[in-house]
């Protein structure tokens, strides 16, 4: 469905110097930041009318950003030539726009047709580029779409989920309720003296000379297709009951998706396939880091199976493989990673994070947003009615998100090579 989206205003919003918490400091980026994607991650949500005015949204944003000073800062270089964050209160970019359509009509058809017009197109090559950018698009019915783009080397999904909930709370309560995040990045960066890395992080999280990470080919972007699969709450409950042993929604749905995508790809039985699973390390470190820590603290787990075993194994068996791999990201592994970062403090490292057009086949990568409280994104008129996924330009990337529907369930958004799309649509 074609929709005319017109930008009406662009402005930088800066918290007052009195309210901003940054103090103009230059903050080193951590080894977790260095391992994350060097680029902007878009997220897009929709709310039915009545929705707060743009003025109320901007007032709440200003009050919230003052407590999240990294988002109003800029990337810079420290006195030693290393990349850092300058908490200079340079501001966040706010774009206001209108859409010539009714939101309900758009959501009932193909909202993806104009999704690219609903969030800012950040340019990471510009040193002055705002780290956080947001677009407020108002539809003819009064419905609202908020599209955000934030740089991943500043904050992970857990952090941005907390920020978004804080912004919603500020708008809903007229800034009477302003949660304060945990901002001490030093809590994630406590190396031993001397540092004693015991795992080969230079070939796992980073691209070393003889990296153990797979070498993936690159596809033209027009060959990568995005699919959305809805798993109703009843289906998820049946899936978990079929596993028998206690398991999470994430473990069950990943097992299901891993099996189905592998079958659709028609891989050789002797091939191996693995999933790059993003693991939140906050509660796994010793001592643990508060869950409201704002920054990056994610590492990857790698459940791996031979194709014939994956396709023939029971769901409980595959769940066990996933659980065991995630358990390997423990306090010992996290401490080793931090020590590696200290030992390589002055070395330029290249992350193994995915890049545009990468084809993970025969592998997958999954991010779970199932624990992100979408119901907390209530700006005063209720939680969002839809999560609108921007295009995922990487073959094999999957995102699991909670359904915004009243009956619950979950959505799987997956990007695949065109040659596998028809098969996955028929069996998932």
**Mean pLDDT value:** 92
Supply the number of structural domains.
Answer: 2
- Fraction of residues in H or I helices: 25-40%
Number of helices: 10
Unreliable stretches = none
**What percentage of amino acids are in beta strands?**
15-25%
- CATH third-level topology of the largest domain: Chloramphenicol Acetyltransferase
* Terminal Cα span: 26 Å
CATH superfamily of the largest domain: Chloramphenicol acetyltransferase-like domain
SS-based class: alpha+beta
Overall morphology:
globular
Radius of gyration over all CA atoms, rounded: 22 Å
Describe the largest sheet.
7 strands, mixed
Count of DSSP E strands?
18
CATH class annotation of the largest domain: Alpha Beta
Please provide the ordered H/E string of secondary-structure elements: EEHEHEEEHEEHEEHHEEEHHHEEEEEH
CATH architecture of the largest domain: 2-Layer Sandwich
Task: Describe the overall structure.
This protein is α+β, with helices and mostly antiparallel strands and 428 residues long. It has ten helices and 18 strands. The two termini are 26 Å apart. α2 crosses α4 (157-172), α6 (249-265) packs across α8 and α6 (249-265) packs across α10 (418-427). β7 and β8 (144-151) form a beta hairpin. It folds into two domains: 5-188, 2-Layer Sandwich (Chloramphenicol Acetyltransferase); 211-424, 2-Layer Sandwich (Chloramphenicol Acetyltransferase), CATH 3.30.559.
